Amino acid sequence: MATVNEAGLFDEAPLLGRARAGDVRAFSDLVVKYERKIYRLAKHITQNDEDAEDVLQETFLKAYEHLGEFQGNSKFYTWIVRIAVNESLMKLRKRKSDRTVSMDESIDTGEETVVREIAVWEDDPEKQYSRDEIRAILDEAVDSLKPSFRTVFLLRDVEELSTEETAETLGLSIPAVKSRLLRARLQLREKLTRFFKRKGDDVFAYL
Amino acid sequence: MLTCKDFLNGLNDFLDQTADPETQAHLTKHVNECPNCWVIVDTTKRTLQVYKGVEPQQLPEELQSRLMKALDRKITNCQAKKQV
Lengths: 207, 84
Fold this sequence. Notes:
The structure holds 2 protein chains of 2 kinds.
Chain A: E1 3-4, E2 10-11, H1 13-20, H2 24-46, H3 49-65, H4 76-95, H5 131-143, H6 147-158, H7 163-170, H8 174-196
Helix pairs in contact in A: 1-2, 2-3, 2-4, 3-4, 5-8, 6-8, 7-8
Chain B: H1 4-9, H2 11-16, H3 21-33, H4 35-53, H5 61-83
Helix pairs in contact in B: 3-4
């Protein structure tokens, strides 16, 4: 049964406690709760359906196997996100073994922080599109980012890991996470502005 | 006096409120006086909101079923190991 804590939020601790004590049903409930998010993350990182499915399975199989090692210092979800990111990066390395895939790409020149388009958005831009259309717009925008920017954005702003957790998961320094996140956010803002800006409000500015 | 470029470099600190109070005050002053940076702040905030607000899609049925089967196999193996 779901437990709700004083803040009215779903309290996962009892479910997690049962899963750790060997309650298979409780573990399945955790899988069902997070499988969609893990699959989405894996698909964005690997850019491949087959790899994403492998990552999804491996993540939960490893989580089950190592559940006893989960310390509870971080959230359970953060723990499985880290497993999923590691599995995804391994897939990328395997697939592109002839090319070096590293999250620690060369230092950027800074030009990508340039803002090209400044336009006010519609009050409720999401209302002009169906839920599927919005999803497609967001996915396409995020998939068009450089892999190293994309992964940082997904971990920080979608999966809500801290800067420190993101840095540790990706083997990056904290300044590298911060600078990639800034560029990722600005590039996404720019891409979404093309869809969401107020009609007839075509103001361009160069900073 | 902050330039727009300075402001943009501090945009994440401004949005995430991770700057020290003095820097935060400078950033706030700039955004209140600069219409372009105000729009950038507003649209960046909304970019993050729209990403956080979208629920992931349901897994295709077959994919879900393969996941559960893989998990069942794993659980059976782990339990068999424990019994040995």
